Amino acid sequence: LSEYSSTPSARQNSYLVGHGSLPTAVAVYDFNNDGYLDIAVNNFFNSYILILNGIGNDNFVRGKTYSTGDNSVPNALFLVDLNNDQRIDILVANIGSNCLGILFAQDHDTFANIITYSSGTSSAPWFAGFGDFNNDTYLDIVSANTGIGSITIFLGYGNDSFTDFITYSTGIGSAPVSLVVEDANNDYQLDILVANQYSNLVTVFLGYGNGSFYMITNSSNNAADECIM
């Protein structure tokens, strides 16, 4: 992991995530409320999340590690308060263990053991997102399942738990690798737009506002893009 200073005499600081770790996702937040941003980064092959604590002067020190499960292979991570306790949690897409995982924040700059929700056999969720899909004031989560060409929705109860999943196909062999949650049609309900790498299509799921969706289109794309911005 490398960090560049914004000053004219920029320098690179590198921080070892782990030998053979293949980090693929990184996010920043002040986890310990000391006024300095910290870094959360995944260890893809060794299946854990590493926290690098900011100490000022453009420097970070190695902090705690949190397992995402044996052979879970975390590919993407997201920072969000999923249980309305005013603390930032870590949402992880685990392609090896076919699940979404949540590390709920605790006191004293720590996280609880991971809680996982299966997205289906061989689903290999590559990416994830979140939003209040059923308008109950609790955040829900969604995964992009590269392995089986689908997305899965988990509705949140607001008490650190989520419902069993609901699956929507993005097409056979589509390989969804990214998604964005947004009100795409200005009806005040959240929708989900999915980038499908192998089918070269963007799939649009419009939300009813009750936690369910319907697909309106597969928009043609000239290239197999991996990200929707």
Automatic annotation (TrEMBL):
InterPro entries reported in the protein's UniProt record: FG-GAP (IPR013517), Integrin_alpha_N (IPR028994)
Keywords of the record: Signal
A Pfam short name: FG-GAP_3
Protein name, UniProt field: VCBS repeat-containing protein
